[in-house]
Amino acid sequence: EVYFKNLSKQKQKEVMEKNVNNHKLRVCVATCNRADYSKLAPIMFGIKAEPQFFELDVVVLGSHLIDDYGNTYRMIEQDDFDIHTRLHTIVRGEDEAAMVESVGLALVKLPDVLNRLKPDVMIVHGDRFDALALATSAALMNIRILHIEGGEVSGTIDDSIRHAITKLAHYHVCCTRSAEQHLIAMCEDHDRILLAGCPSYDKLLSAKNKDYMSIIRMWLGEDVKTRDYIVALQHPVTTDIKHSIKMFELTLDALISFNKRTLVLFPNVDAGSKEMVRVMRKKGIEHHPNFRAVKHVPFDQFIQLVAHAGCMIGNSSCGVREVGAFGTPVINLGTRQTGRETGENVLHVRDADTQDKILHALQLQFGKQYPCSKIYGDGNAVPRILKFLKSIDLKEPLQKKFCFPPVKDNISQDIDHILETQSALAVDLGGTNLRVAIVSMKGEIVKKYTQLNPKTYEDRLELILKMCVEAASEAVNVNCRILGVGISTGGRVNPREGIVLHSTKLIQEWSSVDLRTPISDALHLPVWVDNDGNCAALAERKFGHGKGIENFVTLITGTGIGGGIVHQHELIHGSSFCAAELGHIVVSLDGPECLCGSQGCIEAYASGIALQREAKKLHDEDLLLVEGMSMKKEEVVSAAHLIQAAKLGNTKADDILRTAGTALGLGVVNILHTMNPSLVILSGILASHYVNAVKDVINRQALSSVKTVDVVVSNLADPALLGAASLVLDYTTRRIY
């Protein structure tokens, strides 16, 4: 695949030849703080390595030049870059007014620098107020702007600043497909967007090969072991400074109680940082034996520290972006990163309003190891960015063009150089068969594998792994990118831990089974597990009648009776993961015995097993077969024979089906009176036989206020597999606590 499908090879070659023969591209890289330098440094090294194409000018401003923030300009000098200009632009005060004044001071000083350097392109990173001053100055002085990491979504004023810079920038380098789509939705020119990945990932993905123990000991002490310390990095939230300071205080209290060695980095220069430092000193963090408080850690060393930490906590974008490359557990506090795409390693504590909540999050996350995530890059961003820079034609008009709706199809480069279909591996663990499928984002079952479900735990797990590995390999051939594995199984499931707590009697040796760990370890993919009834509800929510419906219930009518409840767009699991056991709603005190041990459950009347039981009774009394029916001697009596007999006029069979439909209808009425959903979806092989009976019972028995509920039959061909896929496709980049 070529990098830019919208540019012909010939045009690109001509532009590059012109740049080589006539003019080196003069690139100005302006860095404001330690965070943006970690993203810009790989690009700067790449530019410096190709002097035949580029001239590099480095401008340093912002908190780089402040002693309280570590004088981080020194690391730029240590990297052997010539700093052409140092601009002191920060007005101290660390409040909202100081931020505004700092932007104004930068705007006063930058024009003289830019007039002197006369760059062809200014590279601006991210969403800081300093970067807004850079972009504003360059735009007003007719200098082309290349913006790194546009199109992303987060909390605080940074979000608005990032999008403002996007509108000023002429070229865009984004890190994720979602960010690319956001840029397109913001009417940016498709031809000037590059999906490259995050430049810092070029370092991150090779970082673990280096010696790390000496770095850990240097920053945390000689007695510290890997995975047995915490890295804390928390910044003020400029749109709610008072709350963010309180949250920082609660975080420190929780870390003190948790009693693990902790490296605390000072906050950035945003409004509120001075108060946060006061909180640290008030609590004696700088002198506490368990804490090491530092203003700055060089990025190469910081990589090693977070890669081998037991946990990272705070609200830095580094936690939700870079740390995912190592699978290190992260606790993201508050709203500063709301909207960011994250891997499974990130646990969000949106309302970090109590010490206990943060402490509980630490207990959940500390010491875990998650699959590595490459949401933000594959380690090859810099070569793509350099090629993008070489393709810039300085003879093109400087004036930006916006692509207003209708938006064209995405035509910029994919990270893996191929147009892949984002997909999930779906596993359906039934009583008889074990099925694995590749399911696309649109709900298309691309490929399906079916095997008989083994009877023992060991054989079953071995077969699941074998089928998943085979399907994952085949996904490459059918051009699918597997985002994760979703598993639908009978019984009670703890979806948070991926453990089957208790299974149905149909699946033997399947209790207290950890499915997530062995499958995730084998495939290096995140794994989700849930009850088959809940999966059916998720399938309806994403692909079926439940799409866009706030409150609905799904009832599965098959071998057993199960279901799932969606309330306010979210699946209900219950306090002990036993919600929506709809088949065990009791509709008669002296009804037939159920497999659960109780009497009069819906499942004892309306399940496939119950109908088969009644069909056998009729058959034993010679009352099942009627004219038009025949059975072979060795043929097993089933629910299908009962349904066929009822259709052919067998009144006793018809009475049994009516009773079953009435029992199911009474259960639905109970659900309506308890949950008040706007929609009831009947799924499974018996749904079409019960739908009219259920509607009749609602009309007779339900309160008038709920009689208007819609009762429909599912139109999904395979809700179990689609539901398992939904676990992955809905939650691959979201995990909320």
- Highest-level CATH class of the largest domain: Alpha Beta
Main beta-sheet annotation: 7 strands, parallel
- Indicate the radius of gyration in whole angstroms: 31 Å
Query: How many extended strands?
Result: 26
Level-2 CATH architecture of the largest domain:
3-Layer(aba) Sandwich
What ranges have pLDDT less than 50 throughout 5 or more consecutive residues? 1-8, 410-419
Distance between the termini: 40 Å
Number of structural units classed as domains: 4
Number of DSSP helical runs: 24
Kindly report the name of the CATH homologous superfamily of the largest domain: Glycogen Phosphorylase B
The strand line-up of the biggest sheet is 3-2-1-4-5-6-7
Specify the helix fraction band: 25-40%
Choose one word for the global shape. Answer: elongated
Secondary structure category: alpha/beta
What portion of residues belong to β-strands? 15-25%
Describe this structure in words.
This protein is of the alpha/beta class. The chain has four domains: 17-198 and 382-391, Glycogen Phosphorylase B (Rossmann fold, 3-Layer(aba) Sandwich), CATH 3.40.50; 207-365, Rossmann fold (3-Layer(aba) Sandwich); 414-543, 2-Layer Sandwich (Nucleotidyltransferase, domain 5); 545-715, Nucleotidyltransferase, domain 5 (2-Layer Sandwich). It is built from 24 helices and 26 strands. A seven-stranded parallel β-sheet has the order 3-2-1-4-5-6-7, sandwiched between helices. Strands 10-9-8-11-12-13 form a six-stranded parallel β-sheet, with helices on one face. β9 (261-265), α11 (273-282) and β10 form a beta-alpha-beta unit. It is elongated, with a radius of gyration of 31 Å. The protein starts with 8 loop residues before the first helix and ends in a 6-residue tail after the last helix. An N-acyl-D-mannosamine binds at residues 492, 504, 532, 581, 584, 603. Keywords: Allosteric enzyme, ATP-binding, Cytoplasm, Hydrolase, Kinase, Metal-binding, Multifunctional enzyme, Nucleotide-binding, Phosphoprotein, Transferase, Zinc.
